Amino acid sequence: MRFVLDASVAVKWFSNEDFTDKAVRVRDAFLGGKIDLCAPQHILYEVGNSVWKNKSLDLGDSIKAVESFLAIEIELVTLDSEAASQSMKLARDIGVTYYDAVYVQISAMRKIPLLTADRRLFEVAQNAVHLKDYVV
Description:
Layout: E1 2-5, H1 7-10, H2 20-31, E2 36-40, H3 43-53, H4 59-72, E3 75-77, H5 81-94, H6 98-110, E4 114-116, H7 119-124, E5 128-130
Parallel strand pairs: 1-2, 1-4, 2-3, 4-5
């Protein structure tokens, strides 16, 4: 099984919030070779920003979190001009941010589901699985 990984799932690997246990199962399934994950390059910055804002992590823990995210080596997808344009159209059509539309666009291009914990994105994406419904 393959998924486009949304940052809303990945940030839960470094925090304690709703569905963190399921997010950790996603990470462990990926590391164990049970599932395959890809994401747009900007996931690095979204996860880093979330870690930076997490007041429960000190500087050392924040650095370790970002390093561990990079070490997982999720396939990072770069958009070509056409896909970037389609993402902009999609953002306007479904009413989400451009960076969220990129996740949806990659899901459509690759014909694989988007795995998200973002309720709004789940509702508007054509092919999405909400983290709460994820089963290994």
